[in-house]
Give the backbone structure.
Amino acid sequence: MNSEKTYFFDKPANVKRLMNVFYACCAILVVLDFVINRYTYHSWENLWAFYPMYGFVGCVVLVVIAKWMRTFLMRDEDYYDREEQRRLDESVSNSMTGEEDHHVGH
Amino acid sequence: MWATELPPFVPFFIAAVLALLTRGNVRNAIMLIAPVLGGLHLLTVPEGAHLQLAFLGYELVPYRVDKLSLIFGFAFHIAAFIAILYALHVRDTVQQLAGLLYAGSALGAVFAGDLLTLFVFWELLALTSVFLVWARRTTRSYYAGLRYLIIQVLSGVVLLVGILFHASATGSLDFAQIGTGSVAGWLILFAFGVKCAFPFLHNWLTDAYPEATPTGTVFLSAFTTKVAVYCLARAYPGTELLVYVGATMACFPIFFAVIENDLRRVLAYSLINQVGFMVVGIGIGTALSINGAVSHAFNDIIFKGLLFMSMGAVLHMTGRINGSDLGGLYKTMPRTTIFCIIGAASISAFPLFSGFVSKSMVMSAAIEEGYDWIWLMLLFASAGVFHHAGIKIPYFAFFAHDSGIRVSDPPLNMQLAMFIAAVLCVTIGVYPSVLYGLLPYDTGYSPYDATHVLAQTQLLFFSALAFVWLNLRGMYPPELRSTNLDVEWVYRRLCPTLLRGVFARMGSIGALNSAFVDRIALLSPVLARQLGPQGFLASTHPVGSMVKWVTILLAVYLILSFV
């Protein structure tokens, strides 16, 4: 892999730089909350840092619940496929051999 | 350009016939020209009913134009052009014809002025689009297409029954406000709900869309659900039930999207989530909220198309679409990466991108009308959609761990289609007046004020912060090869298993029968001995023995008469 070009995010320093910019943006956005005098439709919006908190907590709750859902919703990748493949194989082999399922007596 | 009476679906159907008769570049040219000419023509068409005819005593209006149908008409022409351009390299007549006919059917449906015409195009939508699924030519797509077709046709049948009830009650087939005041109203709402992917009726979408061809899904994402949104906006504005249904649709799919591995299925779930916002807007029913719903449909057609195109490009180039198999593609697919990020920013409603200028209308309308909890749910859904469609899709496909896959950007036509969609996303985001001028109502709404911009940016950045934090803590659910159960389990697993059980029981009844037959067969040698030529019953007896028995019987009578 030595011959391969090094790409932007291959350097940990670049990743770190990007993350720092991102953290700074987050901090500035919270500070702006105090600077910009916004109007509110709703009393909840007057809570301190309502939108940042809601976004952060909302997403953490989303991920935690989704992860928990995996415990009872997750199945193998071919959970439905096996059955479908079997049905298809059956119908194909039936039509290939021309066999029909007769219920004939003895 | 041509007669006003010519409905917009006609150019597409004609183009389909011409495309069937031609090959190569001529066919490509015809397919590209159809939406361009149609769209330009639509600009010149005045409002009103342009085609009317009588049928069995009912008045049919196959072609009616008003502001509501017009904006969907424009969106569908743009979507058709982009999708056709994106699929231009495909050498598969089935897909090309199906795409043209499908787009035409959608246009037929939104310009239908009566319910019977609507029904015809409703069924045509299903019949034409299913070939985009089957064109993948895999076992999975074959079965997914079958299920899709059954469910779609079923919704058409329910629609027809509802229409017949409605016509006999009101004596008119006019397609206007219907409401839930009658059985017919409920039936028609149910039929619309199936196509709109209401909760519990939604699995046809997450089932079929990811199984379609890379280019087919781009067509599919644009038309079916948006036709349903249009129909709801026309027939059920202000139906309060829709507010709750829509909020549910906006919220529940994001949980499934977070744990889904197939990135196109993630997009399918987020499609339901976006349609949820539209349904809420229709349910609130104010001028602002209807505007919000309609403009969000317009934007969604473009940015969801863009996202499906970028994932289609990944699938086309790598042959893979599972998050667990991808990563690091930004290195060799830089343009696709940028297009995908623009689509992701638009669907997440970042300021200056198209989603922002439409979604905020629905949110504002919700809070103005006092739907506080609904507003909170929509806010949660906004954060959630950024989480799964805005971050997860680009992150797991193009960044994350390096999968070692090195493929180039897709063919030029695909890049060009994505470019056009991306330009539209940004243009509408920066100059929302372009879109607002097309809306059915004039509300004087302006999305760009400090409050909205700051609130939305804060929400999104801290959603992203949550993603970063969860990833650093190792709490983010990894992409796993898996199937997640959804409502479809009922008809894909439970019902077949139950039915198989019933048939097995019937089989065992049959086995019992044959056991009985076997017993009888075992009896036959005994009977044969009795009845055969050597048998007891076949033996001959002398006349004297008969006389003897007659004498005995008479004697018994005699004795009995004395008793």
